[in-house]
Amino acid sequence: MPNNRRPALLIVICLGLLAFSAIHIAGLVASFRLPDLPLPFPDWYLLVRNGIWGLSGLIAASGLFFSQSWAPSFTRWAGLAFVLWYWSDRLLLARSDYAKRSWLAAATITLIAVFWLFWILNRPSIQDFFRESTS
């Protein structure tokens, strides 16, 4: 009889993805109530961005939690896509002094987060869990 107990690190990733989704869904809701500010992008951009990442995080978290075979791959690709989007945003749209001063910290946190995500998803216990769940 296979052991289908979820590894603790998988639960940690799921909780992190739920927090990520909650932040973006809160941003989605808040973007409906934006004051008229001179933004360097169209108003609909925040709706699209927060909607995409809120939904992507929910899909990844639920796929991982319910041991769907596609979930680890989806989570890796979504993580890389988010990093690309985040850094494109930061380099093209962020013009503040804070953005210029904090890029090294942001780059360090990005590298740690991507390493952590890939390291956890490549752990033998996680891979065995998904192998057992699909067989």
General description of the model:
- The termini are close together.
- With 135 residues, this protein is mostly helical.
- The chain is 77% helix and 0% strand.
- The chain has one domain (8-134).
- The chain contains six helices and no strands.
- The chain has helices at 8-31, 44-65, 71-93, 97-101, 103-121, 124-134.
- It is elongated and about 55 Å long.
Query: What is the count of β-strands?
Result: 0
SSE run: HHHHHH
Overall structural domain count: 1
What is the number of helices? 6
Principal-axis shape? elongated
Q: Helical content, roughly?
A: over 70%
Strand content: under 5%
Low-confidence stretches: none
> Could you report the average pLDDT, rounded to the nearest whole number?
90
Query: From the alpha-carbon coordinates, what is the Rg to the nearest angstrom?
Result: 17 Å
| Derived structural class | mainly alpha
Question: What's the layout of helices and strands?
Answer:
Blueprint: H1 8-31, H2 44-65, H3 71-93, H4 97-101, H5 103-121, H6 124-134
Features:
6 helices; mainly alpha; 135 residues
Write a compact overview of the structure shown.
This protein is mostly helical. It has helices spanning 8-31, 44-65, 71-93, 97-101, 103-121, 124-134. Helix 2 runs antiparallel to helix 3.
